[in-house]
Amino acid sequence: MRYFSNGTEITNQEYTSLVKQEEGSETAVDVEKILIKNTPANRTKYLSVKSKKPSIKLNKSSATIALGGKTSVQLKATISGIKGNVTWSSKNSKIASVSKSGKVTGKRAGNTVITARAGKYMAKCKITVRKKKTAKKTAMDLYRKLLEKGKFDSTEGKGSAYGFYLFDLDGNGVKEILITRGKVCYLYTCRQNKAVRLLARGGWGGSKWMYYKKKHVLLFEQGGAGIHEKTYYAIKNGKIVDAAHNSYDYNVNKHYYEQNGKKTTKKKIEAYERQLNKEKPVTLEPNIGIAGKGFRKNTAANRKRYLK
Fold this sequence. Notes:
Shape: elongated
Number of strands: 24
Strand content: 35-45%
């Protein structure tokens, strides 16, 4: 018996040593146990090469553009397994156009579809273009949020508004809102896309508000505790001002007259009041627990109907 390793004859002892090394280095595998049956299912499972289907995807499936705000949106296309460049098109370019890089620009209110194509594959994005939000619409939206979520202090504690009244106090075409919660009322205006509180005032005893539409003046009148007081408010340069003040303190039998923050005479105040009373004002009377005379109740139906 002769033994060889790599073409060189070796001794029996060397051969035995090599066999022992081989047997200790690995474990034999029973081939019968690892054979896979030759079936259609196994041929599909083990003898097929998976390949990615060609595809094109967009970073957005829909987008909204507001005219007067952010007037454009950037679309991006990701392609896989497709040769060639991406081309863009708009179903209605009068509503929204699209550039070669996928930048969509709103033109006018409406709906359209932007399509990205690569070869014979495509992906689409629905585009909605909204009208420019007017100052009036902005104000109504802000006031609605106040009435829905705002908490207001009164003699009854902190809570939601009972009622509201809309009127154009400064004459600029965008209305202010007077919100009532019991005897306390809050006056808000819209400035720089924010609801700004101009005034918060409540009365002791009887109190009411009167709005002079032609003169753009709001009167707060109250009586009780020996005092009768009338304060006429107006808006100048976006701020609330005391256009006139007329009060009488029965406790000391003394009258107080002011106009534009300065002391004045009874004659001038009475002349000012006569000019206002040439028109019939709107009378608003807040009340505890309810909206009160002249105020709209703070209900979902009224918010939908009047705040639009």
